[in-house]
Amino acid sequence: MDNFHPSDLKTILHSKRANLYYLEHCRVLVNGGRVEYVTDQGKQSLYWNIPIANTTTVLLGTGTSITQAAVRELAKSGVMLGFCGGGGTPLFAGTDQVLEVAWIAPQSEYRPTEYLQQWVRFWFDDDLRLSAAKAFQQARLAHLRQHWAGSRVLKEQGFTADMAALDAILAPATSAMVAAVDHVGLLTEEARLTKHLYRLACRATSYGDFTRAKRGDGTDSANQFLDHGNYLAYGLGATATWVLGIPHGLAVLHGKTRRGGLVFDVADLIKDALILPQAFTSAMRGHSEQEFRQSCIEALTRTEALDFMIDTLKATALTFGRLAQGATTAPGEVAPQ
């Protein structure tokens, strides 16, 4: 069979790609033109294909190695690559030091710069950057309520959220976020809301007492699943910003000087809606890490989470980029909610 390359395959938009991989104890290489991961079983080596044209992110965990040829093919297909510890956390940089979030992004000089140009027009204005952060939070809360109220899968798994209690939390949180005078106030309100959401999730699943541990320090299943699931969200966030050509350092909420801050911002759009309830549900159902991970990936795909991230980034860039130029929203275009 003749070798083929990613460029020979039909291009699939990142927002429509179905696969997100976490691999451990394997080798990733190119075999016959295909990117595959190899696991050892006794004296045999088992080869498994990675459909790179339909993949957004690959996380390489404990005991993995990857060849230069495999990295080249992943880059050609625009697959985001990250190195991490066991179970998906913590995430390591592809450099000589450990960072909180760092990704090896595919290098391409031919991505459009439209959204980057609009983003930097408003980003250096403190007031507009704060307004953009508030718009992100509004989109986040709307997505949260929609999923907690309407997810049939969560209900089938036993997650029965008290919607009246959720609305009683979201209403004042939304008002407080809109009224925040600076980024510190907005982050404070975000932290307060998240604590309330943890309590609601505990009640919805009868989980009992819960305290959110620092990343990687939690010993209970819910904390471990939250860490694991959040890195799946970070992978999609990194992919969304890369697709639009917006550097990860141009955050709107998590700090102007924090490398990778925009990945946190974008991941937050879906973490509370999708990852948080699944973490508590999987903990109560006794899921393994693999079962939890698969549930998260199915939820991310089913709800078109990457589409939502990309659309929110686009709307934010265009809306606030025009405001920075003194223009108003174009007819028929709605600012991010």
Q: Would you mind describing this structure in some detail?
A:
The chain has 10 helices and 8 strands. The protein has 337 residues and is an alpha/beta fold. A 4-stranded mixed beta sheet has the order 1-5-7-8, with helices on both faces. It has a 4-stranded mixed beta sheet with strand order 4-3-2-6. β3 and β4 (44-49) form a beta hairpin. α3 (126-150) runs antiparallel to α5 and α8 packs across α9. The longest helix is centred in the middle third of the chain and has 25 residues, at 126-150.
Question: TL;DR of this structure?
Answer:
With 337 residues, the chain is of the alpha/beta class.
Features:
337 residues; alpha/beta; four-stranded mixed sheet; 10 helices; 8 strands; 51% helix; globular; disordered C terminus
In whole angstroms, the N-to-C terminal distance is 51 Å
How are the strands ordered across the major sheet? Answer: 1-5-7-8
Overall morphology: globular
Overall pLDDT? 83
Largest beta-sheet details? 4 strands, mixed
Explain the layout of strands and helices:
Blueprint: E1 19-23, E2 26-31, E3 34-41, E4 44-49, E5 55-60, E6 64-66, H1 68-76, E7 80-84, E8 91-92, H2 114-123, H3 126-150, H4 152-156, H5 163-179, H6 183-205, H7 221-244, H8 261-285, H9 289-302, H10 305-324
Parallel strand pairs: 1-5, 2-6, 5-7
Antiparallel strand pairs: 2-3, 3-4, 7-8
Helix pairs in contact: 2-10, 3-5, 3-8, 3-10, 5-6, 6-8, 7-8, 7-9, 7-10, 8-9, 8-10
